[in-house]
Amino acid sequence: MKEWKQGEAIAKQQITSTIPDSLFMKICSKGTAHKIWTELSNHFQNKSRMVSVDLRRRLQEQRCPERGDVAAHFTTLHTMQEDLPSMGQPITENDFYTIILGSLPSSYDPYILAVNATSSVLGTTLSADDLMFTITEEYKHRNLKSKTGKKEENAAFYSNDSGKGWKGGSSSKKNIECFNCGKKGHYKSDCWAKGGGKEGQGPNQKEKKKLKSKQKEKTTVARRKRRKMMRRSGGND
User: Fold this and answer.
1) pTM score, two decimals?
2) Do 56 and 62 form a contact (C-beta atoms < 8 A)?
3) Whose C-alpha in 31, 115, 176, 205 is 20 to 30 A from the C-alpha of 48?
4) What is the per-residue pLDDT across 9-19, written as a single tens digit (0 to 9) for each?
């Protein structure tokens, strides 16, 4: 009896030293180590059951948003599906297959119908893993196609934009600052100021050149007339 009491005390000490104080207050009234252990087992079994119920509920409520990462979404589903058996609440293959279908965006409906139709014609049944694999491949294909389309669209945009002059150019040039004159709305290659790619080709600058040319011509004519008059006056003398 002495040995039994000693072993009982050691068992109680081992149990109470590994649990929080809040749980100790709940089981301290139990007499023997066996009763304490039974109470703890019931407590954690009930807690595990509630956790598994909550995990199953969250698994069924998982939804992948439109244009979301389908591969990451399937990783989350698969992790949650593998956690349930360890809690004593395994999920069947058919249930998981249904959860996968219900969690996908509506844009995948035509593809899923095509996959199911093909599977029916061939007389085969896809597993949940096979379904996730084929949908992941479709997601990668769509993602690659979308990136390629954006690159082509950007290339066409920049090509059209570069073909326009400064006057009547696209609105994308409004905030561009010229490295030559410091003004906005054009590049250095299109700049009319001194040092620019189109130096002196502005409409106002062309007019000024014409006026200077006319004035220079008039000055030259006037000088010639003066010289003639001076020569005539010198001859008469």
Assistant:
1) 0.45
2) no
3) 31
4) 888 788 777 77
